[in-house]
Design a protein that fits this description.
Layout: H1 5-9, H2 13-26, E1 34-36, H3 44-56, E2 61-63, H4 75-85, E3 90-94, H5 100-109, E4 111-115, H6 119-136, H7 138-145
Parallel strand pairs: 1-2, 2-3, 3-4
Amino acid sequence: MVINYPLLKQQRYSEVYADVAAVRMAAPHPIILKVILETAQLTRFEIVAGCKVSEAAKADFVKTSTGFGGPGATVENVQLMKSVIGSHMKVKASGGVRTVNDCISMMKAGAERIGTSNGVWIMEEAESLEDATHTVGDEGRKTFSSY
C-alpha cells in the first residue's frame, strides 16, 4: 500500500495510522504488508514519522518508492529507514535501482529487498561480474556474493 503521504506531511498521524492499520487488519499475518513511503516526496522527519507509523500498525516492510513519484531509492534514505525500524521490520529499496552496484549499495545501506524493472539486465551483469572474478580471484567474488 502507498502511505497517505499528504496526510503524513500534515502531521495527521492518527489518520495515517488508521489507514495502514485497516490494511493490516484486512490482510493479517502471514500476508506481507509493505508500506510505500514515496521518500522523494518527504523530508527526513516525515520519513522517520512514516516508518514509525508503519511499525506501530504492524507492517512488515517500509518501501522507498513506487518508482513513479520521483527519483526513487537513495542510499541515505534507506540508511535512515533502517536506522528507524531496526530489526522490527524490513526495508525494500525501489525506484532507480538499475545496476548490480546499485543493488549492493542499497543492501549495504540496509535494504533486504530490491524492487527494479531491470532485474534481467542486473542478473546478466551479475553473471558477467561473476565470470570476471575468476580472473581476479576470491576477493572479487566475495564482494558480490556476500550481498
